[in-house]
Amino acid sequence: MEVLYRSTRSTEGTVTASQAILKGLAEDGGLFVPQQIPALDVTMDQLAGMSYQETAYEVMKLFFADFTEEELKNCIARAYDDKFDTKEIAPLKKEDGVFYLELFHGATIAFKDMALSILPHLLTTSAKKNHVENEIVILTATSGDTGKAALAGFADVPGTRIIVFYPKNGVSPIQEKQMVTQKGKNTYVVGIKGNFDDAQTGVKKMFGDKELAAEMNQAGFQFSSANSINIGRLVPQVVYYVYAYAKLRAAGELAENEPMNVVVPTGNFGNILAAYYAKNMGVPIAKLICASNDNKVLYDFFQTGEYNRNRDFILTTSPSMDILISSNLERLIYKIAGEDADKNKTLMQSLTTEGKYEITPEMKEKLKDFAGGFATEEEVAKEIARMYETCGYVMDTHTAVASSVYHKYSEESGDHTKTVIASTASPYKFTRSVMDALHKDSGSMTDFELVDELSRISGVKVPAAIEEIRTAPVLHDTVVETADMKKAVKKILGIN
Ligand SMILES: *Cc1c(COP(=O)(O)O)cnc(C)c1O
Questions:
Q1: Cβ(58) – ligand 1 distance below 6 Å
Q2: Cα–Cα separations (whole angstroms), residue 3 to 15, 16, 37, 293
Q3: Which part of the chain is the Threonine synthase N-terminal domain (predicted)?
Q4: Is 271 helix (H, G, I), strand (E, B) or coil?
């Protein structure tokens, strides 16, 4: 049966995959979810022999049912090409007995590339399929990595413009440099005087602003979202969990149907939700281990069943996980509420008005596949140093959160199931924090001196993404108050 999508906040109406991709967020503020998560229709043994691109097709054809085979294969071929520095696209590295699924071999050396290299193609294909004449304006709030990956994905894609908002003081210097040096006639980067949640709230408000939508339509524009709430972001992320399992089978690391655990360094809950979808498609995944940094709102949620964002926002060395409202969690809440849109809506309203909600014991019961953990800043630094000392493998701060959480989890639970850790960024993206953890940061070295030093000690070549920005000129320098985000958008689009 062809998969259609509906909103997590209403019982009315369904849309096709291409319509859901175009809209991003549903009009009622809910997130699009498939009516049912489709089961894989090929065996693991078949998948074991497939390339990343072939695996991507097998997964995406089930979710993006209104795309033709040709359209989908075209999108996949344009996304997963030599922008990635390895043919495997998402290689697995076995280090210290654990499998690190390296999701950072794309254009911007972070895992967001996995989805954002294909989203522009899914989106322009969707626009064509639905006879959209307006220019598509991508509006994105970023905690660092999404911004650059989206800019890189959409730069100079005809029929699109992209506007990225980022917290001016909430991203790493290299992340900021990556964004403000972005080329492309259709790219705009705006810093805000606030944190990521402020940026995300501002963007969400604009998506829901009917007056603005009408003004834009009159001027020949319409919004779409590249944030991880877009189903066109989520589904491509399911692929690498299927791929990882199949490759571990192919390598003889897993017996037939032997389960694996997955550990995911989590912020907005998109990546780990994709793993949950993979499990629901039939991939033998046992535990989904949700790893948080000091902003451990998700850890507390899995412990207690209460989601409570009323707490201090902590800036950590893993900024892409510094999030107090994990938007994609809504899709899981909807599912464990028995796909009850009203129930979900009540909880989400409570999150908006009171900053918290509590799920019922029956709902909590359905979270048994998940385990939550968190790592402090000290533990993160220690884990980076430990892995370097034991096997010479240098990981970034986000991956280290997951790695630290994994070791605590397996010690406490005695669960020694084979484990895949989602490795979400190259250490070169967070060089100073990584070098600090390795006690190699003199404090007086520039970011690029540290990059060279990291290359020397790790024996890993400096990625092209970093080389490029060494000397690149700053092309974007706008900074606005959080309250002025809408004004900034109108100015960019020439709407008064
Ligand atoms: C975005 C990001 C995360 C968090 O992923 P979510 O899907 O938002 O949970 C973790 N690590 C890195 C490096 C990221 O860029």
A1: no
A2: 9, 8, 8, 35
A3: 5-80
A4: helix
Half-sphere exposure of 410 (CA within 13 A, CB side): 17
Does any ligand 1 atom lie closer than 6 A to the CB of residue 426? no
pLDDT digits (tens, 9 = 90+) for 300-335: 999 999 999 999 999 999 988 999 999 999 999 999
* Model confidence at 340: pLDDT above 80: yes
pLDDT of residue 184: 94
Q: Cβ(294) to ligand 1 under 6 A?
A: no
Q: What is the pLDDT of residues 122-161, one digit of tens each?
A: 999 999 999 999 999 999 898 777 888 899 999 988 889 9
Q: What's the confidence (pLDDT) of residue 397? A: 98
The alpha-helical segments, DSSP class H, found in 414-439 are: 431-437
Cβ of 270 below 6 Å from ligand 1: yes
Task: Please work out whether the CB of residue 172 comes within 6 Å of at least one atom of ligand 1.
Answer: no
Nearest residue to 271 via CA among 303, 228, 209, 300? 228
359 pLDDT tier (thresholds 50, 70, 90): very high
Q: Residue 478: name the closest of 243, 216, 202, 192 by CA.
A: 192
Ligand 1 atom nearest residue 396's Cα: 13
Q: Is the dihedral of CA 404, 407, 329, 179 positive or negative?
A: positive
**Distance, CA 320 to ligand 1 centroid (Å)?**
5
Q: How confident is the model at residue 55 (pLDDT cuts 50, 70, 90)?
A: very high
- The predicted pLDDT at position 1 comes to 63
CA 312 to chain centre: 23
* Beta carbons within 8 Å of 4's beta carbon, 6+ residues apart: 14, 15, 16, 17, 34, 35, 65
- Indicate if the pLDDT at residue 290 is higher than 90: yes
Ligand 1 mean position to 321 CA, how many Å?
6
Q: pLDDT at residue 347 above 80?
A: yes
Whether the predicted model's global pTM rises above the 0.85 cut: yes
Q: Which residues of 25-56 are buried (b: 16+ CB within 10 A; e: fewer)?
A: bbeebbbbbbeebbebeeebeebbebebbebb
Q: Which two tokens stand for residue 489?
A: 């958008």
Helix segments in 65-144, DSSP class H:
69-79, 112-116, 119-129
The protein residue whose alpha carbon is closest to atom 2 in ligand 1 is: 320
Ligand 1 probe mutation, 119, 200, 271, most atoms within 8 A of CB = 271
Q: Is 159 left (phi over 0), alpha (psi -120 to 50) or beta?
A: left
The catalytic residue positions are 112
User: Candidates 31, 330, 398: which one to mutate for ligand 1, based on the most atoms within 8 Å of Cβ?
Assistant: 398
